[in-house]
Amino acid sequence: MEDGQATEAVRQRKTIKESSDHHKCSLCLKPANLVCKACKGAPDGAGGTTAIYYCSTNCQKEDWETHKPRCKASKDRQILYRAGKISQRLFIMFCRASWCSVIDKVESGRGQVMWVDLRRLYTGEIWKIYHGNLTANMKDYLLPFPVEKVPLGPDQESILTQGACRAAMYKVENLIKILLKGMDVHICEVCLRIKNPGMLLASLEPGGIPAATSARHSVYQITLSSGDNYALDLTVV
Q1: What are the tens digits of pLDDT across the range 163-205?
Q2: Which residues have CB under 8 Å from 226's CB, separation 6+?
């Protein structure tokens, strides 16, 4: 094999190959089985993933100036999603390790809860979390989360992070900046008002007294260099 052919073979191996049955070249629209590996698999922002196909390395080179901004935006999005996932998982771990409340029982069903800041009732699906009293030997101690009352999964994580959106802001802020270091991003905190939730968590103090429930919720708004805006919610709501 000649040197030129060997070099081309190496390029072909470095480019991820996919089925060409229903893919077209991004440049010439011919059937394509090569995909840009730099941005392949990056979230597209709509629940799917990115994949830009080419029929040859020549088409990929010729299309690079056009594809370059989109490729960078896709890679930035991938880094942002990964940073968000890591930050959220670590915050959930922190909430589990620092748990210090007693849960007597958890019930679900339809009901009503007062949103104190909106001064109106929420009517719909409610998870009622009945908290118990701390005994003398429990005070000033961290407690294991009662997994027997709330199995592991999204429901448990929702209870772990309930009402903790503001705490997440200052506990995880530096971590997010480290994970996004080197990227041209703008990060700011945004306070939202929740409207028409599918389900609401309601804490009840000992004796069944409802705790104040707020419709306010804080998230990070992150703007990438492409101008795309994303909301990063560190809690599980």
Answers
A1: 888 889 888 889 999 999 999 999 999 998 877 777 778 787 7
A2: 69, 72, 73, 76
Sign of the CA dihedral with 99 first, then 100, 106, and 109 last: negative
Rounded Cα distance between 44 and 76, Å, is 11
Q: How far lies 90's CA from each of 9, 79, 171, in Å?
A: 43, 16, 10
**What are 206's two structure tokens?**
């000992």
- Nearest by Cα to 61 from 31, 36, 30, 33: 36
- 213 vs 161: CA distance, rounded Å: 14
55 backbone φψ class: left, alpha, beta (φ>0; ψ -120 to 50) = alpha
| 8 A C-beta contact, residue 48 and residue 76 | no
Q: Which residue has the tokens 């707020």?
A: 214
